[in-house]
Structures are given as C-alpha cells and as structure tokens.
Design a protein that fits this description.
The protein has about 300 residues and is α/β, with parallel strands linked by helices. The chain is built from eleven helices and eleven strands. The protein has a six-stranded parallel beta sheet, with helices on both faces. Strands 7-10-11 form a three-stranded parallel beta sheet. The chain binds cobalamin and iron/sulfur cluster.
Length: about 300
C-alpha cells in the first residue's frame, strides 16, 4: 500500500448481566488501565509512522462500559479507511462471553481481530489444553495475544498490516522490563466519559508471593517489575498537558513497589516545586504502616 490509513480500534468489552444485557453506564466509574496501556503502545507506533511516512495509523479507544459499541459502523469505518484491525483489550474471564460475541460480528465482516488480557494469558499459562471458549474464537479466525504487549506491539501491527496475523502470539516468556517502558495514556475525551476525571497507570507488575488461587503470578510472573520516578513524572506531565490530573494507581499493593519512595518523592517534588496538584488513589495493604515514612509520604503526594 502506498499512502493511506490503517485504522486501529481498541475496544475494552464490558460483560453481560444475569439476564444477558451488556452492563453499561452513561458515565462509568473506573478507568480501564489495560486500555490505557495498549493505547499508549499503539499511539507510540502511530507517532513513529512504523508503516512508512505515507501511512497514517489512526487509533480509537472505546470502553464499552461507557460507550455503545456499534460493530457494523466500526467495520464500515475500517473498510472506508482501506485497512485496519480490531483489538479486544484487557479481557478478563467474566468479559470473555461478551468478547466472543463482539469478535464474531467483526469476523463476519472479514475484519482482523486480536484478543488480549488476563483470560487468554491465564488460560494459556495454566491449562494443559485450550478451553472450548478460546478454541471457538480461534476457529473463526481471531488471533490471541498472551503476555504483555510492551516490546511486542510493533510486530503485531506489522503482521496485521501485511495480512499475516498468526493465530496465537504467546509472549508469556518475554515479560518486559517496565523501567522506561512506553507509558499508559488515554485521550482526555475518553476520560471525559467517566463520572470522575481519573485516569490510571500501573507502577509495577508481578508478585513474589504464591497464593494458590491467584492468576497474577502465572501471567505477570513472580519477579516484581517497576516503573521509575522518571516514568511516573512522564505520565503525570503527559496527562496534565491534556488537562487530566487525577490518577488511579492500579497496583494491588503499592507499598510493595520497590520504587515507592522515589516515586512518591518525585510526585511531592512536582507538587511543591512545579505546581502540579494531582489527586491519587493508591491501594495499600494493612502492613504498610510498618514501613517508615510510607503513610506520611503517600499523604504528602
Ligand atoms: C486495576 C484492576 C482492576 C480495575 C481496573 C481494570 C483494568 N483492567 O483496568 C477494576 C477495579 C475495574 C477491576 C475490576 C475487576 N477485576 Co481486576 N484487576 C486489576 C489489577 C489489580 C490491575 C490491572 C492492570 O492495570 N494491569 C496492568 C495491565 C496493563 O495489564 P493487562 O490488563 O494484563 O494488559 C496487558 C496485557 O494483558 C496485554 N493486553 C491486554 N489486552 C490486549 C489486547 C491486545 C490486542 C494485545 C496485543 C495485548 C493486550 O498488554 C497489556 C500491556 O502489557 C489486576 C491484577 C494485575 N496485576 O494485573 C486485576 C485483575 C485483572 N482483576 C481481576 C478480576 C477478577 C476483576 C473483577 C472480575 C473483580 C470482581 N469480582 O468484580 C472485576 C471485573 C471488571 C469488569 N469490568 O468486568 C482478575 C482477572 C482474572 C481473570 N481470570 O480474568 C485480576 C488478574 C486479579 C487477580 N488477582 O486475579 N480490576
Ligand atoms: S498478587 Fe496478591 S493474591 Fe496474587 S500471589 Fe501476590 S499477594 Fe497473592
């Protein structure tokens, strides 16, 4: 293709209620961090013009919790652009049935679809054979992505662009170092579809513990990986530039993050010296009060 557009729709599916209705709000409460992470990666490839100077990658993020997903209209937009891809993002197990129904509508229109998130990653990492629901989407020509997309997105987009997507991308053994990784971000317009104007970021992934019921260690591994104070500053500045100043930090226990102190020190510095006034939501677990200075610095940040 010489010149033209490649349209990428990133859709975070919602899930069905007990009566089979899609759960959806006029404005939703919590930002989708998976969507922000994948958007940041695709945006980066788009800005880098990875398909050459003449081909623009146009990327749209949709959270089905606050937006009606009209698959026929999206399929039409991709066809009008000439080429494109639908990514079903951050799909957890409870969202998989809805995801299959969305994927099927795109495949009926011959649109390429990739599904990623904890359901696919968890099943591929833990089960001896593919469960029926996952086999069902492979059978209709959907591609699956297991693992984390940092460092992988450019290749995946290239495969989609060249029409040679593989059925399965198993990147579970290539967990990225988060230090200096591409930052999660969503356009302010997406944040505006929530009740609160909070965006999100994950400051770390992976967990050293071994709780038998937990998917996280099977997907993100038992080695903790962390963003740095510089990365968090970049996240805060990039969002502030579009008027977004409130952050939900999605780490299960931020007190366990090895970089907690340098990250908080940097936020305090930005607050006290550069006039940034972020609101932050952290989850911290019960023993954090034993870490000297932790509560005081969280409060100051
Ligand atoms: C923050 C969080 C939430 C938030 C926000 C959710 C979000 N996804 O942003 C809220 C509070 C809404 C939430 C709710 C729930 N959550 Co939650 N949540 C988390 C938590 C702690 C962090 C999520 C996060 O930011 N991860 C970082 C992102 C970047 O990772 P990621 O989503 O895996 O995305 C990466 C890859 O998967 C991949 N990827 C993802 N999508 C795609 C798509 C394509 C095309 C490609 C190429 C790649 C790709 O690339 C991304 C970047 O590397 C995780 C645990 C964890 N450590 O991840 C649990 C977790 C995801 N939640 C879980 C659960 C069970 C739930 C609930 C069902 C709880 C409940 N009973 O209500 C609900 C369901 C919500 C819903 N909408 O239906 C489970 C999911 C298990 C599973 N089998 O699916 C997890 C793993 C926790 C656990 N201990 O097991 N959650
Ligand atoms: S993330 Fe939480 S539940 Fe999972 S292994 Fe670590 S401590 Fe246990």
């Amino acid at each position: 293709m010489s010149g033209g557009r490649f349209k990428v729709f990133l859709i975070k599916p919602s899930h069905y209620d007990d009566d089979g209705y899609v759960i959806q709000w006029r404005r939703s409460l919590i930002p989708a961090n998976s969507l922000a992470s994948v958007y940041g990666l695709v945006r980066h490839s788009a800005d880098a013009r990875i398909f050459g100077p003449d081909i623009e990658i146009d990327v749209v993020a949709v959270d089905e919790c606050n937006t009606v997903v009209n698959c026929q209209r999206i399929a039409r937009q991709i066809k009008e652009a000439g080429a494109g891809l639908v990514c079903l993002v951050g799909v957890q197990s409870n969202q998989f049935p809805r995801t299959v129904d969305i994927a099927r509508q795109f495949r009926d229109n011959n649109i390429a679809v990739v599904i990623g998130g904890f359901h696919v990653s968890g099943c591929l990492s833990m089960l001896p054979a593919l469960p029926d629901d996952i086999q069902e989407v492979l059978d209709i020509g959907v591609s699956l992505f297991a693992g984390e997309a940092e460092g992988q997105m450019e290749n995946l987009l290239r495969d989609a662009f060249e029409g040679r997507l593989r059925p399965i991308y198993n990147c579970l053994n290539a967990l990225p170092n988060l230090d200096g990784a591409q930052i999660p971000i969503l356009p302010a317009e997406n944040i505006g579809r929530q009740v609160t104007d909070f965006t999100s970021f994950d400051a770390g992934r992976g967990c050293p513990f071994q709780c038998s019921f937990c998917t996280i260690i099977n997907v993100q591994g038992r080695k903790s990986r962390h963003r740095t104070a510089d990365d968090v500053e970049e996240i805060i500045r990039a969002n502030a530039a579009q008027g977004v100043t409130n952050f939900f930090v999605t780490d299960d226990n931020f007190a366990r993050n090895r970089n907690w102190e340098s990250i908080l020190d940097r936020i305090i510095w930005l607050r006290e010296n550069e006039g940034f006034k972020p609101s932050l939501i952290f989850q911290v677990d019960t023993l954090c009060h034993r870490i000297p200075g932790f509560i005081e610095k969280v409060a100051r940040a």
